[in-house]
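Support case: user asked for a sample of complex input and structure output to validate their parser. Sending the pair below.
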Amino acid sequence: MEVGVGDDAAVLRPTPGRRLVVTTDVLVEGRHFGSAFSEPEDWGWKAVAVNLSDLAAMGAAARWLLVALTVPDQASPTLLQRLYAGIGEACEAFAVTLVGGDTSGGPALSLAVTALGEADRAVTRAGARPGDRLVVSGPLGAAAAGLALLERDDQPARELLGRFPGLAAAHRRPRPELATGMRLAHAGATAMIDLSDGLAGDALHLAEASGVGIELHDAAVPLAPGVAEAAALLGRDPAELALGGGEDYLLAAALPPTADLGGVLDCGRFTAEPHRRVRLTPAGPRPLAGLAFDHFRTG
Amino acid sequence: MEVGVGDDAAVLRPTPGRRLVVTTDVLVEGRHFGSAFSEPEDWGWKAVAVNLSDLAAMGAAARWLLVALTVPDQASPTLLQRLYAGIGEACEAFAVTLVGGDTSGGPALSLAVTALGEADRAVTRAGARPGDRLVVSGPLGAAAAGLALLERDDQPARELLGRFPGLAAAHRRPRPELATGMRLAHAGATAMIDLSDGLAGDALHLAEASGVGIELHDAAVPLAPGVAEAAALLGRDPAELALGGGEDYLLAAALPPTADLGGVLDCGRFTAEPHRRVRLTPAGPRPLAGLAFDHFRTG
C-alpha cells in the first residue's frame, strides 16, 4: 500500500502477473445480524469474513478491504468504535489491510464491504465436469445449529451451547477458508463456491453454472460437533441443518478424481445428466432444492 | 475482465506496472439525494459519479465498479431498475465496467459504491509546495445554486433554472473530471482533491495535508454561468455559493509555477506560512474556514 485511508482514494501496488479478484457484500442490522445474539464487534468481524469467504471461493489470497458504513444518528458513540474493533480483529486474523472507508448517517446500521484479493488462477463456479468429486472443506451445520440454539435460549439449549462452543462461534465469527481455497485451486479444483446458503443450494449453483448433474450423498455429509445433539433437542433433521443451514462459510468444490488433496470431505459427485440434480437419501433420490436457507431475520 | 457479475467474485486483469487506485463512498436517501429534486436514475448516476470523482482527484483512469445496495421492502418494483439504469448510464458515460454487486433489503435506500482505477503516478493531497499555484478545473457554485433554486421553487427560481440548465444538472448529474485529473497529474500537479465540500474547505484540506499555507483570492474565483444571478435572487453572497457550496465535483490542484497547462483557472497560491490559511477578500484577509458545505438533508 502506498496511500491508505485519508486521501481521496487508496493507492495499491498489485502483484505483477496476478489476477485481481474483487467482491462486495452488504450486511444490514436485523437482516444479517442482530443485537439479541451477537455484539457489534461480531458484526464488524462478520462483514469482513463473508467478503473474504467470497475471495476464498475463488482460490484467491485476500489483500485489501474497503468499508462503507451507514450508522443511525441515535447510535451510541461507542458503536462505531466497537464495529471497527471487530473489523480490525478480522483484518488482523486474515492478514488484510483496511485501505478505505466512508461513513454516513442513515436510518439503520449497514456495513458494505469490498474485498480485494489476488490469484494466479481464479476458480469460478462454472468448471465442474462429469466424474468430478463434490468435496467440502469441513463438517457442516454449526452456524445454523448455533443460531437455532441461541434463538431457543432455554436451559438445555444453553447447556449445548456451553458444551459445543463452536456452534455459537460459527454464527458469530465465521472464519473464511482462505488457505483451503488456495489449496483447492492449486490442487486443480474445477469449480468452487462458499457455503452461504447451505450445501444443497450451493451445490446446485455449482451444477447449474457448470451445466452438469449432481448427486449429493446424504449419508456422507459430515456434521459439525454438536449438530446431531442440537438437531435432537430442536426436533429437526440433522441433514436439514447441514444441507439447508446457511452461513457455514466453508467451501464446496468440484475436484477431478485424480486430484490428490487431504483435508477435504467427499459428499457427492458431478454427473453427465444435467437434468438430474438430486440428494441420495435412505428413502431414495430427492430433488436438490427447497432447502435454501433464509437469512436470519428479526422483522 | 475475465469474470464479471454472477460468480462469488469478479476476476480482473490489472495493467502491468500501474498502481491500483480504489475508493468507496456511500450515499443515503434523505442525506445525499431525495425524491423532491431528482429521480432514481439521477441517484444511481450520482453514486457512481462521486466515486469516480475521487479517482479523478488522484489522476487515475477509472476502470471498474462494484455496487452494494440496500432497498426498502416497500419500494416499487421499478425502483431497482431505475437505479441501475442511472448506474449504467454513468458507467457508459465514463467508460467503467460494473463487475460486482450485492442487494439487500433494508429500512432505507442506500448505495455503497466502490470504484477501482489505475494510474502511473497517483497524486495525493499532501504534496503542495510553497509557491505552487492553486488552480481549479472549472467555474464554481453551480451545484449549490442549483439545489438552492430547486428548494426555493418559485416562479423566478424556475425561470433561472430554465435559463441556466447547468445549475440543476450540476446537482443531479455531476460529471467527474477524469480526463482533467489525468492531465493535471501528467502536468506535474503536486497535490489534488475533488470539490465535494466547497473550495474553501477543500483547499484547506490540501494546505493541511501538505503542511503549507494558502492564500485564496476571492476576486479570482470563477463563477459558473447563472451563479451570480442565483445569488442575487437568493439574497446570498456569490462567493459563499462558490466557496462554501459543495458538490461541484470539479478538481482543485497545486501546480508548480513552471507547469504549462491550459484549461485550468488560477485562484490562489500556496505559501511557506502554514499558520496562514486565508481568503483575500476586498475587506482584507479572512480565515479559510467556516464555509464547509452541509450536505443536502431532508430530516
